Structures are given as structure tokens and as C-alpha cells.
Amino acid sequence: MNSGVLASCVTxxxxxxxxxxxxxxTVTQFCDKIIDVFLNEKPKSRDWKRFLVLRxxxxxxxxxxxxxxxxxxxxxxxxxxxxxxxxxxxxxxxIDDEMERHTELLKELQDNPTDVNAIVTKRxxxxxxxxxxxxxxxxxxxxxxEDRDAVARLGARCLSAVSAFDNTLEIVGSLDxxxxxxEDILNSPSIDVACEKIKSLxxxxxxxxxxxxxxxxxxxxxxxxxxxxxxxxDIMYHLYKATKTSMRSIAPKEIKLLKYLLNITDPEERFSAxxxxxSPGDEHDAKDPSAIYTTPKELHKWIxxxxxxxxxxxxxxxxxxxxxxxxxxxxxxxxxxxxxIEGEYxxxxxxxxxxxxxxxx
Length: 361
Description:
This protein is mainly α.
């Protein structure tokens, strides 16, 4: 069965009459063919989506399909087959509704191409991984490279807007934590102790971009102030210099790893390199001395710091690599890496820990 067959039976499906359609099928026979394909040849929901993404064609005969599933289930004597037909209809309808939501969201984006950020703010919960997979499926249905490119560009713009929105929410929380750290630094008994606290935070990788921006901002305000005492300006300057020195001194390996990953253009190769970075192997195995290994948690932390620095104020950050992130494709790759680590590694660890807990009680 292909899209040509689907198109050929559209008129008959609409009229709901038993006339012959392409390749000798009546409407009932055609729906039976779809049922057979979905139950036997392509029983995975991801395969069904390739048919249901063709919305205009599917809508023209979808009611006939659901009606046929119901009629066959009612007439079926085999309880097992009856349940299969009922489940098939329910599952396909669920995907049908999902595809319709994605299509409606896509239409809103296409009708308002300059309001992507506003739409993301209003409908963030609808920009799921399934929506972006839907865009990929949709792109594959286009024969024109121009049409495919248009969908890909829209997807990239949406990813960038979602990343900015999510990081803004995270930054609100991180600013509160950063403010507490900053106040603790300011309450130090001496400048030397305050600078030592900054160094300790850097070593513990807790000198995040939000705190850096607070310190930078405090120094900028003090430097321009005509009323602030010189002693206060001196304190802010020393804190600012200590922060810059600490950021340069730690040179986290994760930043180097990210630069390597972001320069890989092929997605499969990039994800393979990511998996390798998390799998150094047994201590007795031969390791590549030039390779960089880390944990999902650590790399995820530095990805968030890079995104924070980029979206909050990339001009003020001391992370040189964040200043260089001026290409949307780089930000998109960074966002996808973040999502991949969360979905494929961090969530797995949480599930594993939950599975172990009952045995320990």
C-alpha cells in the first residue's frame, strides 16, 4: 500500500459507497487492507504515523476506517481478534488526534512566522519531542528540497525559541541561588577570604554563569558610580578579577568535549561520540590518551552553563566559547545534546534508582 492507493480511494471513501477504487479495491476492501497492514505488516505505531502524517488524504477516509474497525469487531466471534480490532481503532485514533494537534500548531507557526517566540511562550507544553519528530516525518513527505528545507528551518527556529524559553525559567531559579552565594561572598571578613570563596566555588564547579553575571554587574555598577566609596569599588574590583582568574584556571574538560561534539555535523556520529565519552571502559582496557571522558551529569551541567551564558547575556560572560555561539545551528545542536542526555541518560539513572529502592527497604 502506498500514498497513490490512498489518493485513488479518496472519492469512494467520502461517498461511503461500495464502488471499485484503484487496484480493484472497494472502500470496505481498502479499509480491510489498511487494518491488515497495521495489524500484521507494520504493527508499530511509528509506522502508522507515516500514513497519518498525510493529513488531507487520511481525513477523507478516516471515518470509514474507524467504522470498519467497529463493524468487524462487532461481527467477530474470536474474542482475541475482537480485542485487537478495538485496540487498533483506539490506538490509531490516539495518534490521529496527536497528529491533528501537531498540524494545528504547525499551521499557527506558518501563519505567524514572526511570532515564534510568542507562540512558544503561550504553548510551550505543545512543543514536545513528538512534535519535532512530526516535523521530521512531514519533511520526508516532501519531494521538493526547498519544501524540506523550509520545514527544517522552521524546526530549528522552534528549537532555538524553546531553548531560550526553558533557560529563562531555569535562570529565574538559578538567580536566587546565585544571589545567596554572592551575599555569602560579600559577608566575608576580608577581601582575601572572599576571593578564596570564589576560587573554592570554581573548583567545585559551582561558579555558574548567573553568579558570574552578578559579580560582573556589581563591578560595572561600582566602576560607573560617582557616589560609591572607593573602598567598595576596590572590593568589587577584586571580586571581579578573582572571578575572571578562577574561570580561566579551571578550564573544564567538558567545554573541550562540547566544542568537539558541536563540530561534528553528522547527528549519528555526534551521538556515537557522546556515548563514547560516557563509556571509558574497564580500567584495564586500552584507552585513547587524547579522548575526553566524563559523566552525563557533569556534561549536562556545563551544557546548561553554556546555554545560560548565551541566553542571559552572552556579552558579559567570561566563557569564551559562549560568546562564539553566534550560529543558530550550534545552539540547536547544544539544545539537542541537552535533551538527549536528559532523555537517554539522566532519566534512565532515575528509573534505575527507583527500581532498586524497593529491594533495599
